[in-house]
Specification:
400 residues; 6 strands; 14 helices; Prenyltrans; Glycosyltransferase; 39% helix; two-stranded antiparallel ribbon; mainly alpha
Length: 400
């Protein structure tokens, strides 16, 4: 992510190298509608950022506003798919209208499945997603487009969230697991264990950290939301012996991610034309991916880096960025209300309709010592029963 699906979406429309910054102002031709999170132009990420925002609120124990949920459900096309944004929901999708894509559809399914009560919407969306599966078992961003790791993984997460069994789905030939395995870089090669976004024109696989984080979730059959679980003891290493199972693919990918963040605690931007700078969104995806695979201890180092450095990035980037950080906090069992001095949940809430029910805020108590007031945060925790719906992945990839 920077928001996970951006590379897939922007590549699909041919503007990857000229991607607009996340802080871009709304287009003069696009009015940001009521009910939508954020004030930036929603043309390329409206459904995506709304889905992540609703999912993050739900995961943090809040009930999203009906207005926000209705905005999302109202974006669905007649055939069940979701486009990135429909300025005019009265106009039909397809043709010269909005084009449904797998990433927006899968993100919406994950959010609405977690909220519950939207089986009619998610059912149509799942049917649409199944129909877009390629012969190699994967999914591309656009219907009929070549499969990529990010799109395949976010669809797998959506199908799992909707109660399907994506590992058994072979609508036109192979399974999603086979598609992901075909995009894994062999251990003996440079970047071994990682996944490529897609093969290059010569069929070569090049390691891509965002695709790798998304691929871990896809291989494990998990979505954007990962509940903290029991940590595994021994750190993973890329291994090619024995049976090539989805679990092995996930461990190999995790080993690559752990190595990538071992020195600095974060990933670097790999976007074409981007400055040599930290990639906050993909680092957040890495935290979620490692935690999903049981490497919670290894996930805490990049999370600590995010906690120290990512608040300003989220403020500049908007609701999807706050959502990513909330989901990464949830994955390692941390408190999203206490993120290096930032309350991620309250910051997200301010960017959209007020939630119908807010989670209890951290309790603060003033204590006098040497004439100075010292505030201690106590009684902090996520509400029991948090939804556990997966670049992403969105797991979009680096989405503005």
């Amino acid at each position: 992510m920077n928001v996970r699906r951006s590379a897939a979406a922007l590549a699909a429309i041919g503007v990857l190298a000229a991607a607009a910054p996340a802080t871009a102002a709304p287009s003069p031709k696009v009015t940001v509608p009521a009910g939508l999170f954020g004030k930036g132009d929603p043309t390329y990420d409206g459904v995506w950022r709304q889905s992540l925002a609703l999912l993050a609120q739900h995961t943090a124990g809040e009930k999203p506003a009906d207005q926000a949920v209705k905005w999302l459900t109202g974006q669905q096309c007649a055939d069940g798919g979701f486009a990135s944004f429909r300025a005019d929901t009265g106009a039909a999708c397809g043709g010269k209208g909005a084009q449904a894509d797998t990433n927006s559809t899968a993100a919406a399914v994950q959010a609405l499945a977690a909220l519950g009560g939207h089986d009619d919407v998610t059912g149509k969306a799942v049917t649409w997603l199944k129909a877009q599966q390629n012969k190699d078992g994967g999914w591309g961003y656009s219907p009929g487009g070549p499969s990529d790791t990010n799109s395949t993984s976010v669809v797998v997460g959506a199908l799992a969230a909707a109660g399907e069994k994506p590992a058994e789905l072979r609508g036109k030939g192979k399974t999603p697991d086979q598609a992901l395995a075909s995009l894994a870089v062999p251990c003996a090669q440079k970047g071994g264990g990682a996944l490529a976004f897609q093969p290059d024109k010569k069929g070569k696989l090049e390691a891509n950290a965002d695709a790798t984080a998304a691929g871990v979730l896809g291989a494990l059959g998990k979505g954007f939301v990962v509940a903290p679980g029991k940590a595994r003891d021994k750190a993973p290493a890329c291994a090619s012996d024995g049976k090539a199972t989805p679990a092995r693919l996930a461990d190999n990918a995790s080993a690559h991610l752990i190595g990538a963040v071992s020195k600095s605690g974060h990933l670097m931007s790999a976007m074409p034309g981007a400055e040599n700078q930290p990639d906050f969104g993909n680092t957040a995806d890495t935290v979620v991916a490692l935690a999903a695979d049981g490497w919670t201890k290894q996930a805490k180092a990049p999370y600590a880096w995010l906690k120290k450095n990512a608040a300003k990035w989220a403020q500049q980037s908007g609701p999807a960025a706050y959502a990513q950080l909330i989901l990464s906090a949830h994955a390692v069992g941390a408190d999203p209300h206490d993120f290096g001095g930032t309350d991620l949940v309250r910051a997200l809430d301010k960017l959209g309709p007020a939630p119908a029910k807010q989670a209890a805020a951290p309790e603060k108590k003033a204590t006098e010592k040497s004439g100075n007031s010292v505030w201690w945060i106590i009684g902090v925790g996520l509400v029991a029963g948090i939804g556990v719906g997966f670049l992403f992945s969105g797991r979009k990839k680096n989405r503005p």
